[in-house]
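Suppose you are handed a protein chain with no further information: no name, no annotation, nothing but its sequence. What can you learn? This example shows the usual starting point.
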Amino acid sequence: MWAILGGAALIFLMRVCDVTLGTVRQIMAVQGRAIIAATIGFFELTIFILAISKTILSVHESPAYVFAYAGGFAVGTLAGVRLEAAIGLGTRLIRVITVRQNHELVDALRAGGFGVTVLPGEGMHGPVFVLFSVVKRRNVPAYAAIVRDHAPNAFFTVEETRFSSGGILGPRKAH
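A reasonable first move is to predict its three-dimensional structure. Written in structure tokens, the prediction is:
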């Protein structure tokens, strides 16, 4: 009994590890971080092969191994998504559209250390002002809070950027 529980726990933990690594690896690959993705992939697949072989070789002893394998996959998926969110790698393009020129919003974003490019535009019902910023992913909530405080009716989108160069990714640190 203890041997089965120990084996199932080992399979579960291996699956949690390999699926978590797989989630992070996919994100690194999408962001163009090929060497990091490849390195993570090596460890991910090593653990996967050990987990699947232990499951296949032991499944005749107890169905607990299959449930441990599937449960590890589910928990690993959750852990991978949460780990990636906590790390917050990459940059995001934020596009804000306001129906009126909002210098207060622009000033507040810049005071918060964010770079902002402002362009006039034409919306469905007339003139609009479009703000563009590229920010570090972990700073998106702070940026969005400033937008909500100063332009609660503004429309904004957040998109992943694959590459950016130059500019201000803010917030800037005081020197």
